[in-house]
Amino acid sequence: MTNSNHSGGVLALREVIKTYEMGEEKVHALSGVSLDIGRNEYVAIMGPSGSGKSTLMNIIGCLDIPTTGSYSLDGEMVATKSEAELADIRNRMIGFVFQTFNLIPRADIFHNVELPLIYGGVPKSERRERAQAAIEKVGLADRMKHKPNELSGGQRQRVAIARALVFNPSIILADEPTGNLDSRTGEEIMGMFDDLHAAGQTIILVTHEDHIAKHADRTIRLRDGKIESDVATVATHRTIRPKAANGVVTAVAPGFGIEAEAAGLA
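-> structure tokens emitted (266 positions)
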């Protein structure tokens, strides 16, 4: 089932099946999932434990490949790529924001954000310019030389968002992005995703929380490895956040991360 009303699709899955072998038993995590997501869509993926949403997230994020079926991301067929090619796609096309704050503890914020560009072979002068711009975009220009342990939870999550943005990715894939934050800080972080979507970014949220999903314009629910429903929704929790004259959001939120390997950086 698909329900994308946006022209210019950024990703398409067709009859995706994912099967894991557990000894002699085969576990069907996904059973024939077909899905389109268009550019500048804001999509929430939901489902109970065992529904297949984590497996779907891993496939969309190029952390895994289908057993059968096809997956196209920004025109590239992903399912047949090698591990090295998948790592390159993850680094260039997907901005990851997860609930855990897996920043490199010994590196300052600037170098944490710069890291994907280093692995992407971007020249030093351009790296510095892009990393600085991403950090400024999330309102942490005065924290660039701080280490992760010198930041609050929400600030670390804002670093995660900056790192996700630094390569101008095709999609931002956020897995329970407020899971380790208090409710107020979580809403401030969701306000940042709302702002990014308003600026044209494609965002995919994986969540089990209804109030987080209500920020999105479309909700896909999985059950038993299949799409149970795929409906357009009215975003009721959008956060209007104050901006300074230079366009930087002024709300200060105390969170971040993903393992470098999972982000395609190792």
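Residues 183-198 form the longest helix (16 residues).
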